[in-house]
Amino acid sequence: MSLLHVLMSRCPPAVMIWMSLMPMSTSAMTLPSVWSDHAVLQQRSSVRMWGWGKPNETIRVTPEWSGESVETVVGWDANWQVFLDTPEAGGPYTILVQGYSERLITDVLIGEVWMCTGQSNMEWNPGAGMDGGAELIQNANYPEIRFFSVSHRTSAVPQLDVVGSWEVCRPESVEWFSAIAYVFGREVHVGTGLPVGLVLSAWGGTPAEPWMPESVVNEDPVLLGASGKLQQEEWGPVMPGLAYHAMLEPLTRFRIAGAIWYQGESNVAAAESYDQVLRALVESWRKAWGYSFPFLYVQVAPWSYESPYAGAEMRDAQRRALPDIPNSGMAVISDAGDLENIHPPNKIDPGLRLARLAMSRIYGSPDPLDSGPLFREMQVSGPEVRLLFDHVDGGWVTECGWSDHFEVAGADQVFHAAHARLDGETILVVSESVTEPVAVRFAYRSTAQPGLYNKAGLPASCFRTDRWPLGQP
Fold first, then answer.
1. Do 316 and 434 share a domain, yes or no?
2. Is pLDDT of 278 > 50?
3. What burial letters (b/e) apply to 409-421, b meaning 16+ CB within 10 Å?
4. Which of 49, 153, 210, 337 could share a disulfide with 246, CB 3.0–4.6 Å?
5. Is the pLDDT of residue 15 over 90?
6. Is the pLDDT of residue 24 over 80?
7. Are 299 and 313 in contact (CB under 8 A)?
8. What one-character DSSP code corresponds to residue 358?
9. Rounded to whole angstroms, how far apart are CA atoms 432 and 416?
10. Is 410 found in the same domain as 313?
């Protein structure tokens, strides 16, 4: 017989009734890890706070910024949630959470919260080696920037919480945090004056499929076919849903301003369908969060892939995805790669370019040159093709050899080298071997670094106007 049964057998009936009404534990109420000291909450929003407790336990939440308590009762499933209306950016504040136990969350800021996701180039930290890494670490004293790093986990079923904690931005915390995410957050913080929270959930070597629900992949023949080309590697999961359930889904109740994404190298085996994969990933995330937050991503850099076209095909798929993903933007980094290193040591420019997109499209600093030039349309006149682009207001800046990256084909689908010249904000292309041009390609090689920029110094994306099968160059 247990000690509890012995005690109850010796108690008067009134005492037994009193004991039955007592909580069995004085620490029943618990919170997910993201609701902890040093957190950043999304400003001017209705943010969801949730946790666990004993059924029928009353939970009272009192945020310092309002001083008004919000109450709820734990359900039969041990879950509870409340919604807190956040003010404009500010802090630090405390949040008092009371149930059978009590928790005081301290040093909470109200500002902008960004989810930072992808594979190794997003995960890469200054301490692992990068251009300017030592200076980046040394100058990282921004107490209103906060980091939350999610530990690597996999799961075949949805999880309730992630392993992670908030840290204040200082040299020792930046050293092992995402370099690109930090540069992005620093620029947004400095540019807006707002506190910034960066939630890093990334895993080197992972393709896109583990970062979305498996049902999204399994119910789409194109996505399922692309997923079937993935080979399991030793450094991380490739099966759909495994990272999503463990490292992202538990955070979908946490209000964010938007997401930044740097991924694609692990999907080059099926690059031709990556635009559909990326669109499906974003749609699934927005559905899980319940709103269409901004999604900004980095186009992969040139590198010596096994196939001469693989890198270009991936970059072009990422370019094609843009119009199909509302409220999105893409940072082109064809000038920031390293042909011998799939992890380019230049992590500063990708972060700066993501921040430029955010400042222009989200934070009220409109900039027609917030992106590298993107192909819009072609106009054929006899043997000559005129190419029109977005994000070239004011004209072009070129490096030697830029025009060597254009090719033209006729109806026979055979591409020939072309001559290109600038004409205002357009480019005129002609090939002596093609009298009736049908298609144009630009910088369509894995290693292409074309040296074509707009006046802001942002490089043009590769593109092709055809969808013909790729042959050998």
1. no
2. yes
3. bbeeeebeebebe
4. 153
5. no
6. no
7. no
8. H
9. 9
10. no
As a whole number of angstroms, the distance between CA 87 and CA 50 comes to 19
Q: DSSP class of residue 338? A: B
Which residue matches tokens 């144009």?
Answer: 440
Q: Which residues contact 66 (CB under 8 A, 6 or more apart)?
A: 85, 87
104: left (phi over 0), alpha (psi -120 to 50) or beta: beta
Q: Which amino acid is at 415?
A: F
Residue 394 one-letter amino acid:
G
Which residue stretches of 109-241 are H helix?
A: 120-123, 133-138, 171-174, 179-192, 214-218, 221-228
Cα–Cα distance measured from residue 171 to residue 125, given in angstroms and rounded to the nearest whole number: 12
Looking at residue 306, its pLDDT comes to: 87
**Does one domain contain both 298 and 351?**
yes
Alpha carbons 144 and 93: distance in angstroms, whole number: 13
- Measuring CA to CA, how many Å separate 358 from each of 5, 115, 312, 460? 62, 13, 25, 19
Task: Give the pairing of strands 46-52 and 79-85.
Answer: antiparallel
Residue 320 resides in a domain: yes
Cβ-Cβ contacts under 8 Å for 276 (sequence gap 6 or more):
220, 222, 223, 226
Would you say residue 472 has pLDDT above 50?
Answer: yes
Query: What is the domain extent for residue 314?
Result: 111-361
Which residue type occupies 292? Answer: S
Residues 104 and 253 in one domain: no
